[in-house]
Amino acid sequence: MTGDTLVRGATGTGHAHFGRLLAAEWTKLRTVRSTVWSFAALIVAVIGFTALFTWLTVQQWSQMNAADRAQAALDPVPQILGSGLFLGQLAICVLGALVATSEYSTGMIRSTLLASPHRLRMLAAKCVVFTLPVLVVGEVLAFASYGLGKSIISSKIHTSLGDPHVTRAVFGEGLYLGVLGLFALAIGQLIRHTAGAITTVIALVLVLVPLAGLLPGSVGKHVSAYLPTNAGQQIMQIYPKDQILTAWQGFGVFTAWTAVLLGAAAWLLVKRDA
Amino acid sequence: MIEVKDLVKRYGDTTAVDHLSFTVQPGRITGFLGPNGAGKSTTMRLILGLDKPTSGGALIDGKPYRDLPDPLRYVGALLEARAVHPGRTAFNHLLYLAQTQGVPKERVHQVLDLVGLSAVAKKRTKGFSLGMGQRLGIAAALLGDPKLLILDEPVNGLDPEGIVWIRNLMKTLAEQGRTVFVSSHLMNEMAVTADHVVVIGRGKLIADTPMNEFIARYSENVVLVRSPQADRLAGELRTKGAEVTPQQDGALLVNKLAAPAIGEVAAANAIVLHELAPQRASLEAAFMELTRSDVEFHAPVSDAVSGPSGGDGQLPPLPAAVPASGPEQGGAR
């Protein structure tokens, strides 16, 4: 215990620097395997399924009816990105939930909160550190898979980033994944149990949408349009399907859902015992 | 210095910490004793701001934990439950903690060396034994070179060599003028380490006293007597009001009569004595005695405190407070 006074007397600002919290959360994120595996699954699913499904579309083109061909030609972006995103987004759902719940399942939350007792600052740092990589990877993947799908499907459908709204739609996929990550993180932080949180996120993302589709008439259509991921995915449509929300309105609704959940999670984080 | 002031923590009808007040002074080891479930860990979590008190509070050098600048540089804590992600290496666990405090990376290597984990620093902690996990927790506590240490059951899972190591470490830290607050349910362990002791039972303060005074005050002294005429001696001693417990090897354990008085009884009756040895009561016995009386005398009070719901009174007695599990007659061996 001698000679270890090198950190004694170091000054404090009264709060941990936010930059330090960012560095610490980044260390946490990059030093567990689930992060690497989740990003790998995201990349493989998005690129792999985009390639597979656009290739299948080309192969099946002669058997498709005229209406389907017209729809595909009219709005090619979801045709190209839809399948990869549908599966790839699950990796982000799982990782987002885990980023929050692994603190609780391992008991690490106690170490974390002893180091940063200002809990909201910790949560803010966690949100920033998780969302930024998801956004960056999401954007790169969106443009890469669009380019790949476009070249595969080019013999049947012409599409280009220069066409109206296409850049917004492709860019929107990355934004959607970023907000989805936060959405999952918020639910993880609310529920604090890994299995429960992942089940809830996946139910909200995958199960609720077809379920709402069973509701009759315009009520069903409106409920369905305002569901978090349905609304969020509007940003990837060139021509909104249901005419209830525009692309950016839909994305706004998704962001609002996420903000409300995150607010509730933050409030409970401060209120509950760790 | 840690000041705990009228601290209360309730979970529904259960009162885990019941109007607890005490202070922990720097420069010595303060043991925090109590049977399992007495509220030791809860009290520590309340001091550290992990749990919110129902009322009252705890201050560290006059401030609540959350207001400490760079808290790990001020307070090092080892909590009873594991607080490490099993998929992360020991080094990375300490690294992220260091980063939150602006503690340099070299210090991570330093504390890993100090606790003897350098060789496994790059290994995931999921393969760690209980003792290695405990050493990692201690490394985390020492990371910020804190002036105050709060250790919950630090010897848990350590081998005998590890136990001696942590004892010496705590003594060194206290000698350096740091505040060391360490909990245990093992009384004998505390007897050889702690200078001062705070005892709680059912969340209430039972004793807050120097260790040697604690032993002297709360233990009943017992005298071991050997005599070839043990039966006759036992009869004579009983007429003087002593409690006599014959042992299997023929010796007698005598309570409530001091060694000189026993000698005089023997001389007066011309009984030969082969051995007359006052036994120093162990801390374990003192502790049993103390928590037993706590249950006997304090339980009605806790009923009154818990009010109309009366949930507290319905609870079975705490395990360590059950007299049946203790040595007979509070006897010391």
Short description:
By secondary structure, chain A is mainly α. Chain A has eleven helices and no strands. Chain A has one domain (17-25, 35-212, 230-271).
Overall description:
The complex is a heterodimer of chains A (274) and B (333). Chain A has helices at 18-30, 33-60, 66-74, 76-106, 108-115, 119-153, 166-191, 194-213, 217-226, 228-232, 247-271. Chain A has 274 residues and is an all-alpha fold. Chain A has one domain (17-25, 35-212, 230-271). The longest helix of chain A is centred in the middle third of the chain and has 35 residues, at 119-153. The radius of gyration of chain A is 21 Å and the shape is globular. By secondary structure, chain B is α/β, with parallel strands linked by helices. Chain B folds into 3 domains: 2-216, 3-Layer(aba) Sandwich (Rossmann fold), CATH 3.40.50; 222-279, Alpha-Beta Plaits (2-Layer Sandwich); 284-330, no CATH class. Chain B has 11 helices and 13 strands. Chain B has helices spanning 40-47, 90-101, 105-115, 130-142, 160-175, 187-193, 211-218, 230-239, 259-268, 283-306, 311-314; strands at residues 2-11, 14-24, 29-33, 55-60, 75-78, 148-152, 179-184, 196-201, 204-210, 222-226, 243-246, 252-255, 275-279. Chain B has a 6-stranded mixed beta sheet, with helices on both faces. A 4-stranded antiparallel beta sheet of chain B has the order 11-12-10-13, covered by helices on one side. A 3-stranded antiparallel beta sheet of chain B has the order 2-1-4, covered by helices on one side. The longest helix of chain B has 24 residues, at 283-306. Chain B is elongated, with a radius of gyration of 24 Å. The two termini of chain B are 37 Å apart. The interface between A and B is large, with 41 and 50 residues.
